[in-house]
Amino acid sequence: MKEQATEARIKELIEKCLEIRKNAYAPYSGFAVGAVLVDHAGREFSGVNVENASFGLTVCAERNAVAAAVAGGMKQIKLLCVAADAPAPVTPCGACRQVIAEFADEDAVIIAANLDKNYKLYKVSDLLPEGFKLKP
Ligand code: THU
Questions:
Q1: Test site for ligand 1: of 49, 81, 124, most ligand atoms within 8 A of the Cβ
Q2: Phi-psi category of residue 117: left, alpha or beta, with phi > 0 → left and psi -120 to 50 → alpha
Q3: Pocket lining: 44 vs ligand 1, CB cutoff 6 Å
Q4: What is the pTM of this model?
Q5: Among 8, 79, 12, which residue's Cα sits nearest to residue 39?
Q6: Which residues 6+ apart lie within 8 Å of 131 measured at CB?
Q7: 28-38: per-residue pLDDT in tens?
Q8: Which of 72, 126, 66, 50 is nearest to 102 (CA)?
């Protein structure tokens, strides 16, 4: 199934990110993040950031969405939307970029958004040029 990043679809995914974001567990940073991933079959999986008193154990929303998707049988990411409360659309951190790249097909689209529903679209290669590959 070809997922089209139409304006309507993007807005819908941002809304879903903002809804799931309410479940973020971010008592330390106060920075709640929601992510929604759409796979090759059009299925959606979501994630929120989950922080921990041992700060380094925090896992970002995007990586939690990828983990949920893998458990659900996702093979390839078509779209991944992330949203948080920031002046400009929030882009995935470096660790998440590497994890997203593992599963993203070459025309996957990353939608970075904020609460005002401002957004920017990226290809994974824009976010992670020369990313690590075990077998390049
Ligand atoms: N965070 C995410 O969930 N995704 C990102 O792309 C950037 C950062 C989380 C991690 C931490 O819980 C909080 O935001 C502040 O860094």
A1: 49
A2: left
A3: no
A4: 0.96
A5: 79
A6: 97, 98, 101, 124
A7: 999 999 999 99
A8: 66
